[in-house]
Amino acid sequence: MTLFAEHSYSRVMVFIDFRNIYESCRNFTGSDKVKMDLFRLTQILVGPRDLIGAYIFDASLKGVLPDEETKRMHDNLSDNGFRIMNRESMVKRDGDYVQKEVDVSLACEMLEHALLNHFDIAIVISGDRDFVPVMQKVQAAGKRVEVAAFENVYSSESKRVADVYYLLNDIPFLSMSSPIDGGDSYE
After folding, report:
1. Ordered domains of the chain (ranges, CATH)
2. Residue 181: exposed, middle, or buried by beta-carbon count in 10 A (0-12, 13-18, 19+)?
3. pTM (2 decimals)?
4. Given pLDDT bands bounded at 50, 70 and 90, which one contains residue 184?
5. Which of 15, 32, 144, 172 would give a disulfide with 121, using CB separation of 3.0 to 4.6 Å?
């Protein structure tokens, strides 16, 4: 039970931490051959409410994925209506490439839209605890925050702070890919 009334006219914005969900999906399924239908996931989470905007936050993975593959992935998501917020800041740490600035970019965008009164509800698709401070600030501005993540990466603090939380394990937005359809792990 929540203190907030549900309204079908609520304005919703979606903020997706792409690499967090992508890696969580691979860990959840144990396979690289799974397609995430982020368009369907967004539709399911938003439901009958009004979608104002859907953002995907990512970083170019120079040295890990060919630039053309990252561009193709971003173009595909953009063609489906997502606004791509791409950071080109990768750092090599302990032999692995790590994206930088993505979480801060998502937090800034979410807070800016909240303060400009562009939405009533923010849906954060990430299990990352780093978003707890911005979630609290957005709530202090009178907005609701819903969080969706896979159970194995869901921060207990994010779950506690969120007005509503969804387990991605229970939402049908994954499908198996095959060599025939190109084997991409995203849509």
Report:
1. 11-181 (3.40.50.1010)
2. exposed
3. 0.82
4. very low
5. 144
